[in-house]
Amino acid sequence: MRFLADESCDFSVVRALRKGGHDVKAIAEMSPGISDEEVAELSADKMRILITEDKDFGQMVYAKSQASAGVIFIRFPANARLSMPDTIVRLVGEQGEKLHRRFVVVRPARIRITGIPLFVTGKHMA
């Protein structure tokens, strides 16, 4: 699968997904410092599921109807972060292509998957 890791994404997740054979581009390696809007546009344009720990992306997708190929929003407290990479790899392994066009909130011992509208150049894509 193809992912785009926001700068807020812990790099251990990037390494774990790459080790699992997934195509992961990291903003920290490509274009550090670009805006959230540019990250979201890049994710949508390249059809890469965005992986982030930045809650602003939820606001962008739902309130502003930002185009999206999907978002994995990670919410792990400091005392549970060691299990985070394995949790994300397991999620991707179990859900696979079902993660496209979804907004996924991942917490320790809890994963919530919701559908999101996908807008491209102002047109709703069913």
Describe the structure.
The protein is α/β, with parallel strands linked by helices. The protein has one domain: Rossmann fold, CATH 3.40.50. Helix content is 33%, strand content 27%. The chain is built from 5 helices and 8 strands, in the order E-H-E-H-H-E-H-E-H-E-E-E-E. It has a 6-stranded mixed β-sheet, sandwiched between helices.
Structure summarized in a few sentences:
The chain is of the alpha/beta class.
Q: Can you lay out the helices and strands and say which pair or pack?
A:
Layout: E1 2-5, H1 11-19, E2 23-26, H2 27-30, H3 36-45, E3 49-52, H4 56-62, E4 71-74, H5 84-95, E5 102-107, E6 110-115, E7 118-120, E8 123-125
Parallel strand pairs: 1-2, 1-3, 3-4, 4-5
Antiparallel strand pairs: 5-6, 7-8
Helix pairs in contact: 1-5
For the structure shown, list the relevant keywords:
globular; 8 strands; alpha/beta; 33% helix; Rossmann fold; disordered C terminus; two-stranded antiparallel sheet
> Order of strands across the widest beta sheet?
2-1-3-4-5-6
Q: Give the total of beta strands.
A: 8
What name does the CATH topology carry?
Rossmann fold
Contiguous uncertain segments of 5+ residues: 119-126
